[in-house]
Write a structure and sequence with these properties.
31% of the residues lie in helices and 18% in strands. By secondary structure, it is an alpha+beta fold. A four-stranded mixed sheet has the order 1-2-3-4, with helices on one face. The protein is globular and about 45 Å long.
Amino acid sequence: QGVATWAKEGLTICANSNPLDSEVLDSLGRCIRTDHKSFILFNIYAPCRGTTIRREFYEALRESMSRARRETNKPVILCGDFNVALHKYDIHYQWRTVRVDLLSLDQRKCLCGYMNKNTNTNTNVNV
């Protein structure tokens, strides 16, 4: 596993392969931050299994992205493999689906709030 960001030489100011400030999470190689002249890019390969590690990953990512925005006042862009799918038919291995309707109300509010707040989309999930 791992993630890489390719950019033309001279277009990045710096790169950080340990942006989550967590020895355990950063050692997994699932996130890289690159600073550019007018924006900051986070490229991820999110964990697909284990609710605890996924939650810890996304919480650390959210904090790191928020900190980058506060410290630089630059737009922050998130891209990569989120290991999520909107529709059941988008998933090859149906047994790996997470039934949102089985999540607690607090979990659904947290997920939908994060997605609506940090993306240009509306999840349209009834909570």
